């Protein structure tokens, strides 16, 4: 076994930090610690950074494992993009505009509705859109306004809200099953990765208050204009290297423990027979909750087993390459169909530059418990006809490729009661901190929550070291 200090500069181990996990939380923590003057080593078991928001090659295409979006109110993630010099590689709507197609309309033809905002202040910014939203009756539209006003009065941090499911609250406030489907779940499933009946009221209130009821532009939608790997791996790695962070990929952590002198010892394995050990004064565990449970030493967290009570929820993505253009919008969402959200990924994948014709669509299916294990052939038979129902131009178009990406543990499950299970950044062991979207960020499992968790873990570590003021920390991260 090779033993070394995480501080390659030979300084005391108390000035060295090891971050375990190279997702958004770990990269954020590593950058923040390095910006404050610590020597940082980041360890990642995969051959890349980015966690569950990454890209891969399929033939000539560069494919994202799933469609990831952010909102204008995601200030931490947007700051992260600035920190890694990638903010110019994303698209952000000038104003929220969501096309909503309903294939269950009486005419039998898809009916288009829009959820969009004006420049008016909250809550008037959505009033015109709601008043003309064709997928709800006038009475249902009026009930939405009353529920929104009641929602504004909730405190998402109130522990009592965590024990109630969102659907129960919606029904108590006059929301019909159609209203839940056509509005509340339309937004909630995509942001919470759960339907209203499976979502904590506290988390749902946080999403809707922050996104739709805080500032007029808060819910404007953004997405990557390039493959996610360009952002979360290539650009992130360049920023880490420039900050002086040592990045070790394909390095699995097998144990974390304190020695008799109080220093942290991190055992690693980079391959068969390639065991090593790093010594450091600070360790940030930025891994999923089950991995964190396995690595946390005894006594580091009261009732460590509660981490195992934080469930997971799947996301399924269907990738369809047509021989011609079938969608003229960057994205849309659907009602009356198993299809949820559909995005045009032609340009970001590189398809447009190579073929000059054809189109690549990504169908993003959150809360996909019913479909996550279906065979590809069955998913193809289920979803291609649905896309033809929604997109008349797809009828008769040849499908050049159809493939599936599955993230069975894409997010933590935002179930009622999950709030009391999510730990904060600090543990009971000095120098050991937790990060990850599943920790107590107040947010659901989003890129924003992941970045916020990394920032919280780094700030807690710096506070414990008395180093917060040693060097200006970039507030963007």
Question: What is the topology?
Answer:
Elements lengths: L1 E4 L10 E5 L3 H12 L3 E5 L11 E4 L2 E4 L4 E3 L3 H9 L6 E3 L4 E6 L8 E6 L10 H5 L6 H15 L6 H4 L3 H7 L4 H16 L8 H12 L8 E4 L3 H16 L2 E3 L3 E7 L5 E6 L5 E6 L1 E4 L3 H7 L16 E11 L8 E5 L5 E4 L1 H4 L1 H5 L3 E8 L9 H15 L8 E14 L19 E3 L12 H19 L12
Parallel strand pairs: 1-14, 2-3, 2-15, 3-11, 8-17, 15-21
Antiparallel strand pairs: 4-5, 6-10, 7-10, 8-9, 12-13, 13-14, 16-19, 16-20, 17-18, 18-19
What is the number of beta strands?
Answer: 21
Q: What structural class results from the helix and strand content?
A: alpha/beta
Give the full name of the CATH homologous superfamily of the largest domain: FAD/NAD(P)-binding domain
Top CATH class of the largest domain: Alpha Beta
Q: What would you report as the Rg, rounded to the nearest angstrom?
A: 23 Å
- Tell me the helix content: 25-40%
Major sheet summary line: 7 strands, mixed
Instruction: List the strand order in the largest sheet.
Output: 9-8-17-18-19-16-20
- The multimeric state of the shown protein is single chain
Number of helices, counting only DSSP H or I runs of 4 residues or more: 14
Mean pLDDT: 94
CATH topology of the largest domain: FAD/NAD(P)-binding domain
Task: Estimate the global geometry from the Cα principal axes.
Answer: globular
Taking pLDDT < 50 over at least 5 consecutive residues as the criterion, the unreliable ranges are: 8-12, 469-477
User: What would you say the CATH architecture of the largest domain is?
Assistant: 3-Layer(bba) Sandwich
The overall number of domains is 3
Strand content: 15-25%
């Amino acid at each position: 076994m090779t033993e070394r200090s995480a501080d390659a500069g030979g300084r005391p181990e108390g000035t060295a930090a090891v971050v375990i996990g190279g997702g958004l939380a770990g990269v954020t923590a590593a950058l923040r610690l390095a910006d404050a003057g610590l020597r940082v080593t980041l360890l990642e078991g995969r051959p890349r950074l980015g966690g569950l928001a990454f890209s891969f090659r399929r033939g000539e295409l560069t494919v994202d494992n799933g469609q990831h979006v952010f909102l204008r109110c995601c200030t931490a993630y947007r700051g992260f993009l600035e920190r890694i010099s990638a903010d110019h590689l994303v698209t952000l709507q000038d104003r929220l505009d969501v096309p909503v197609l309903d294939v269950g309309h009486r005419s039998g033809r898809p009916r288009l509705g829009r959820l969009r905002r004006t420049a008016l202040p909250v809550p008037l910014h959505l009033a015109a859109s709601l008043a003309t939203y064709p997928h709800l009756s006038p009475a249902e539209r009026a009930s939405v306004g009353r529920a929104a006003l009641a929602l504004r009065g909730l405190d998402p941090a109130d522990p009592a809200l965590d024990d109630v499911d969102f659907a129960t609250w919606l029904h108590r406030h006059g929301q019909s099953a159609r209203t839940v489907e056509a509005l509340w779940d339309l937004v909630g499933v995509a942001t919470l990765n759960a339907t209203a009946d499976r979502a904590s009221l506290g988390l749902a209130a946080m999403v809707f208050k922050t996104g739709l009821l805080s500032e007029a532009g808060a819910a404007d939608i953004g997405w990557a204009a390039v493959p996610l790997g360009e952002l979360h791996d290539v650009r992130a790695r360049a920023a880490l290297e420039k900050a002086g962070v040592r990045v070790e990929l394909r390095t699995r952590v097998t144990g974390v423990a304190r020695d008799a002198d109080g220093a942290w010892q991190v055992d690693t394995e980079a391959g068969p027979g390639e065991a090593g050990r790093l010594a450091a004064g600070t360790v940030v565990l930025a891994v999923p909750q089950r991995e964190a449970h396995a690595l946390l030493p005894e006594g580091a967290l009261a009732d460590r087993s509660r981490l195992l009570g934080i469930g997971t929820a799947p996301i399924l993505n269907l990738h369809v390459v047509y021989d011609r253009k079938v969608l003229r919008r960057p994205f849309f969402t659907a009602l009356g169909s198993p299809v949820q959200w559909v995005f045009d990924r032609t340009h970001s994948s590189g398809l447009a530059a190579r073929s000059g014709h054809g189109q690549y669509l990504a169908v993003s299916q959150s809360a996909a418990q019913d479909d996550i294990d279906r065979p590809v052939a069955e998913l193809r038979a289920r979803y291609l006809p649905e896309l033809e129902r929604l997109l008349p131009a797809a009828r008769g178009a040849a499908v050049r490729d159809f493939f599936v990406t599955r993230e069975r543990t894409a997010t933590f499950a935002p179930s009622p009661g999950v709030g009391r299970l999510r730990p904060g950044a600090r543990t009971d062991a000095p120098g050991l901190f937790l990060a990850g979207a599943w920790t107590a960020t107040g947010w659901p499992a989003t890129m924003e929550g992941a970045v916020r968790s990394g920032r919280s873990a780094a700030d807690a570590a710096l506070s414990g070291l008395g180093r917060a003021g040693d060097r200006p920390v970039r507030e963007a991260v």
